[in-house]
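[agent] plan:
  1. take the single chain provided in the ticket
  2. run structure prediction with default settings
  3. attach structure tokens to the ticket
  4. add a short note for the reviewer (M.T.)
[agent] executing step 1
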Amino acid sequence: MSAIRSRDNPRVRRWRRLRDDARARRAARRALLEGPHLVAAYLASGGTPAALLVSESALAREPARSLVARAGVSPAILADRVFAAIADTETPAGIAAEIALPQGAVELGASPGCVFLEGVQDAGNVGAILRSAVAFGLTDAVLGGGCADAWSPKVLRAAAGAHFSLRILQGAALAAEIRRFGGRVLCTVPRGGVALRAADLSGRIGWIFGSEGRGVSAALSSAAHLRVTIPMAPPAESLNVAAAAAVCFYEAARARQ
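[agent] step 2 finished; step 3 output follows
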């Protein structure tokens, strides 16, 4: 099979748009996974790539060769410099996959646990929150306006495969989705809330987390059934939003046990 050797190839231009442009991803209902870990996680979830991209040098070694065998699709082979033109990492591993984004409605009324994100703009934080959500048993994530695109390369890397164990809803009207969830909803506040370990964390729990600078808006905070505070040793006053989410998810999982 001959390799693609031009960066101006129409498929290469399309893959670059999927890498760079959230609007292109939404319009095409496609995203680009890069690296053996993400491709392996996608295949393990039962997914079949719309396209599998492999550089010439990667095709000669593991783990790319075994992933190509597992994928069940003929790969698009790219010259190394062409693959580098679509990669989002400085030292690409030479394998990527174009995948279809999940389709269908998310019925939150049956969700055992959900996280609602308001204006979390940092891609690393969004990805880390999704990763922690899966680790501690949540099944759904709802991202309101102003959040980093869940299917951007940086979010995908930070989530380390969590996307394939979650139902993710983007661009949602958070207040409406909280009502659809129907369980108890908690949000964190820097001070004045119930200490996290003393809070009632039983039943179906939804967590609201807000932007890194402003936190949860007053309007959305009013939808919460309980405000909780994570006790911290002085002089610390707050936690990074992803760290706060991980602490809350862990404490809720511990309470369930």
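[agent] step 4 note for reviewer: The longest strand covers residues 95-100.
[agent] ticket updated
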